[in-house]
Amino acid sequence: MTLKLGIIGTNWITKMFVEAALATKQYELVAVYSRTEAKGQDFTTNFAGDQAVWTDLNDFLQSGIDVVYIASPNSLHFEQAYAAIEAGVNVIVEKSAFDNPEQYEKIYSLLQKNPTVKLFEAARHIYQDNFKIIEQKVNQMAHISGATFVYEKYSSRFDDYLAGKKPNVLSREFSAGALADLGVYPLYAAIKLFGLPDDQFYFATLLDNGADGRGTVILRYPKFDVTLIFGKSANSYELSEIHGRRDTIVIDNIAELGEVKYDDGQGNVTVISQPAPDNPMVQEAEFFANILQNKLQTPNDYEEATILSQKVNLVLTKLRHSAGIKFPSDQ
Ligand SMILES: NC(=O)c1ccc[n+]([C@@H]2O[C@H](COP(=O)([O-])OP(=O)(O)OC[C@H]3O[C@@H](n4cnc5c(N)ncnc54)[C@H](OP(=O)(O)O)[C@@H]3O)[C@@H](O)[C@H]2O)c1
Question: Which interval of the chain is the signal sequence (predicted)?
């Protein structure tokens, strides 16, 4: 049986997710929601088969879909996910899922009242085999001295910002900015590998509109610190590293996970990664489908993913507040 998939948001990331979902053979795309009929119809031309296009969210959610992939601006995730859960539709919501723990709490309460519905945050990198390889290696290391994760890419939307426009992804109004966008990847990696930090600090470089264009986070753990460097206003080619004593895991890119090496500090360097998949969303799409189709390999997978997502949300919010960055939903 395939899952009947509906999508919200018609940008390139949705196309990539649908291609990943179809590649797993566990989904069929049946419904597209867009604010405009023309954009919705245009999106369907990327795919074979018949898809209904909806411009009314409730009609879309009532159209018989099993699961919705939400890739709208962050500030819309909460109300769209809430409406989907109320309609009995499973949710895959793009990162960052929700603005703050208050929103998460409301979603969580609603899920408790609708126990057949599941919600996932699409943090694609942690579902990749290369992330699991890193996790296994970290667990084998005798000692952790610290880590530095870097993800900094100049965004074409930064050109728009410089031209005086208001791109959603660099705007507090849409619950966006460097931390909520690219910063989520290194933060997810840190919390998945090392758990919740004892304390956290965010040194943000703010744009004229009050959103963060780039920044540095320090996560303090009892015996080490983890530094996260990310942004949308410059390109960085720095590696990410996890430090043991002599030994080091060296990662080309903490969000893309193209190549991972283990350097034992005694002259031996081994590539421990596998070739990265062409579409980085296939493994998450497979994970979500397996859970929705009750093909669980480990009974706690879903609960663990949910708890991790909530922890990331909590730390993300603390970091944002520590830098004085407010979103409209914080009021
Ligand atoms: N996992 C990844 O690798 C990855 C990569 C990129 C983005 N993302 C995530 O995907 C989500 C979307 O990001 P994006 O950069 O694609 O956002 P975006 O371009 O600002 O908007 C995405 C879609 O939402 C709709 N939309 C745009 N502005 C809107 C508005 N003012 N009100 C209502 N709907 C609006 C549009 O669809 P219609 O015009 O058809 O309604 C648009 O295609 C974010 O949560 C982001 O973090 C994830």
Answer: none
Per residue in 163-193, pLDDT (tens digit) is 999 999 999 999 999 999 999 999 999 999 9
Give residue 143's Cα distance to chain centre. 28
Please check whether residue 159 lies inside any domain of the structure: yes
Of the candidates 97, 315, 309, the one whose C-alpha atom is nearest the C-alpha of residue 202 is 315
Domain check: are 80 and 205 in the same one? no
Pairing of strands 269-271, 67-70: unpaired
| Domain contains 54 | yes
Pocket of ligand 1 (CB under 6 A): 9-11, 13, 34-35, 39, 71-74, 76, 94-95, 122, 124, 168-169, 181
pLDDT tens figures, 139-153: 999 999 999 999 999
Start-end of H helices in 32-96: 37-44, 57-61, 74-86
Contact 169, 232 (CB under 8 A): yes
Task: Please state the domain count of the chain.
Answer: 2
103: which residues sit within 8 A by CB, 6+ positions away? 78, 329
CATH number at residue 249: 3.30.360.10
Residue 159 CA to ligand 1 centre (angstroms): 18
Q: Which of 69, 304, 29, 273 is nearest to 192 (CA)?
A: 304
The CA-based angle 76-89-83, given to 5 degrees, is 35
